[in-house]
C-alpha cells in the first residue's frame, strides 16, 4: 500500500486499471453515475467535493472494435470527457492514462518523442485526448499497455502482435509512483518487456489458441512495444536518493 498525504481523485475506478489502483492507494473513486465525465458540471462538482491534489484520469471508452461503429460515443468519453475532466481540475496535478496504440506499430520500441500515427478510431481519440491534456499546466501523460487480470478473455490470442503490456495489477504500482512524482510532467512511457500477445495470454491461460492479427475485424498496430528507458532511469534515480 502506498502512503501519501495527497488527496487523490480517480476516474474509471471500476475498470481494470482503476480497480487495481484503488487497492494500492487511498483515493476517492466516484462511480460513473456520480462522475459521468461526459457531463462537465459533474466533473466540476466532483473536483469541488473531493478537492484533490492529484486527479488520475483512468475512465475511457476501451472497446477498440466497437469504437469503429460507435464513433460518437467513443469520442464523447475519450475526447470530450477528457477535456471536461482536465478543465474541471483547474491546474491540479492531472494524470492522463494514454496508450501504446497511439503508434502505428511499424517499428516498435517507441520513445516519448516518436511520432504517433493511430491506425484505428479508438487510438485516434486517445491521441486527441493527449493533445488536449498537454495544453494544460501540471499534467502528465502516461503511455502504457495492460490487459485485464485473470484468464484470457478470448479463446485465441495474436501470435503476430508485439506489445509491452502486462496485466493491470502489474502496471498499477508504477502508475501510482509516477502520479506521486509531482515534478514529473509531459509524456512518459511505462511498460513491461516486449512480447507477443499470445505469450502474455499464456501466462494465465496456458491453453489459449493462436490467431493472426490479419484476422482482426479492426485494424490493429503490429508492434506497439514502448521504450521505457526514461522511466527506468527515473526509478533508479529515486531509489538512489532514498538510500
Ligand atoms: N486496457 C488496455 O489495454 C489499455 C491500454 C493502455 C491504456 N488504456 C487506457 O487506460 C484507461 C483505463 O483502461 P481500463 O482497461 O482499465 O478500462 P476499462 O476496464 O474498460 O474501464 C473503463 C472505465 O471507464 C469508466 N467510464 C466509461 N465511460 C465513462 C463515463 N462517461 N464517465 C465516467 N467513467 C466512465 C468505466 O466506468 P463504468 O464501467 O463503471 O461505467 C470504467 O471504470 C483508459 O483510458 C484506456 O484508454 C487501456
UniProtKB/TrEMBL annotation:
The keyword Oxidoreductase applies. GO terms for biological process: dTDP-rhamnose biosynthetic process. GO terms for molecular function: dTDP-4-dehydrorhamnose reductase activity. Pathway: Carbohydrate biosynthesis; dTDP-L-rhamnose biosynthesis. Pfam families: RmlD_sub_bind (PF04321). One of its GO terms (cellular component) is cytosol. Its EC number is 1.1.1.133. Belongs to the dTDP-4-dehydrorhamnose reductase family. This is dTDP-4-dehydrorhamnose reductase. It comes from Candidatus Wolfebacteria bacterium GW2011_GWB1_41_12.
Amino acid at each position: 500500500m502506498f502512503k501519501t498525504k495527497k488527496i487523490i481523485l480517480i476516474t474509471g475506478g471500476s475498470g481494470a486499471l482503476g480497480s487495481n489502483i484503488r487497492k494500492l492507494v487511498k483515493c476517492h473513486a466516484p462511480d460513473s453515475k456520480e462522475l459521468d465525465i461526459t457531463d462537465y458540471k459533474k466533473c466540476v462538482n466532483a473536483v469541488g467535493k473531493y478537492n484533490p491534489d492529484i486527479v488520475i484520469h483512468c475512465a475511457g471508452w476501451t472497446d477498440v472494435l466497437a469504437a469503429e461503429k460507435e464513433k460518437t460515443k467513443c469520442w464523447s468519453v475519450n475526447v470530450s470527457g477528457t477535456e471536461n475532466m482536465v478543465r474541471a481540475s483547474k491546474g491540479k496535478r492531472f494524470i492522463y492514462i494514454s496508450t501504446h496504440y497511439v503508434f502505428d506499430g511499424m517499428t516498435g520500441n517507441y520513445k516519448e518523442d516518436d511520432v504517433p500515427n493511430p491506425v484505428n478510431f479508438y487510438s485516434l481519440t486517445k491521441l486527441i485526448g493527449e493533445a488536449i491534456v498537454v495544453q494544460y499546466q501540471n499534467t502528465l501523460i502516461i503511455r502504457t499497455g495492460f490487459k485485464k487480470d485473470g484468464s484470457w478473455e478470448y479463446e485465441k490470442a495474436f501470435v503476430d502482435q508485439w506489445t509491452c503490456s502486462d496485466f493491470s495489477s502489474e502496471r498499477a504500482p508504477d502508475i501510482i509512483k509516477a502520479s506521486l512524482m509531482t515534478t514529473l510532467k509531459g509524456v512518459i512511457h511505462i511498460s513491461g518487456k516486449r512480447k507477443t500477445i499470445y505469450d502474455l495470454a499464456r501466462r494465465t491461460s496456458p491453453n489459449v489458441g493462436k490467431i493472426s492479427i490479419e484476422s482482426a475485424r479492426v485494424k490493429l498496430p503490429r508492434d506497439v512495444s514502448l521504450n521505457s528507458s526514461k522511466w527506468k532511469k527515473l526509478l533508479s534515480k529515486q531509489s538512489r536518493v532514498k538510500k
